[in-house]
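Project outcomes to date are best conveyed with an example. Our students and postdoctoral researchers have been running inverse folding experiments weekly, and each run begins with a structure described purely in tokens. The record below, which covers 183 residues, was selected by the lab manager from last quarter's runs and is presented without edits.
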């Protein structure tokens, strides 16, 4: 008598190696291309984002990441050695008056690397690398991002963070703040 049909099951995927590499001015073309993908995604929740006449969104602040290296920090996210996204962080945030707070200004993970821990791992590396008080701003209407950031910050801090609503201009933010220790 034959036993129950056995289905071959793939082993669970091996953990991905996520790194966060400082970007330089030489990486501007790559970051500009990735920013187009990011801004396209964000145009769904930021209705004021408009495509330019050249068919690009553009990101006018990118040159400041090279001219203000003490206040702006650009990183490329790599997963298993391949480009997986980027993080742009700033010293100073539009939602607080402290000029030394660190702010996750822009954060992007390519879709193929989402929901697998790449984003969380990259955020953890960032917060361990740049120590201090951090702000993560999420548009109130961006439900998926809000869930991601609440879970990521809660895991990183062991649940020790503050959360509040802040309105700046047309944007209603959910602001998560926490401290990673002396810088």
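After processing, the design step wrote out the following sequence:
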């Amino acid at each position: 008598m034959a036993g129950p049909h056995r289905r071959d099951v793939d082993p669970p995927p091996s953990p991905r190696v996520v790194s966060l590499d400082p970007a330089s001015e030489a990486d501007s073309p790559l970051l500009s291309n990735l920013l187009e993908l990011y801004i396209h995604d964000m145009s769904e929740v930021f209705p004021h984002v408009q495509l330019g006449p050249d068919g690009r969104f553009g990101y006018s602040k990118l040159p400041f990441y090279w001219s203000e290296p003490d206040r702006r920090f650009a990183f490329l996210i790599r997963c298993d050695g391949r480009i997986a996204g980027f993080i742009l962080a700033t010293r100073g945030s539009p939602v607080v008056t402290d000029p030394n707070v660190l702010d996750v200004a822009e954060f992007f993970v390519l879709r193929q690397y989402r929901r697998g821990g790449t984003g969380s791992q990259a955020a953890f590396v960032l917060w361990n690398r740049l120590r201090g008080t951090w702000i993560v701003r999420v548009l109130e209407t961006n439900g998926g991002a809000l869930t991601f950031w609440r879970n990521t910050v809660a895991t990183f801090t062991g649940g020790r963070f503050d959360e509040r609503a802040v309105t700046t201009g047309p944007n209603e933010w959910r602001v998560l703040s926490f401290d990673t220790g002396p810088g």
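The longest helix spans residues 28-42. The two ends are 68 Å apart (CA to CA). The training component of this project remains on track.
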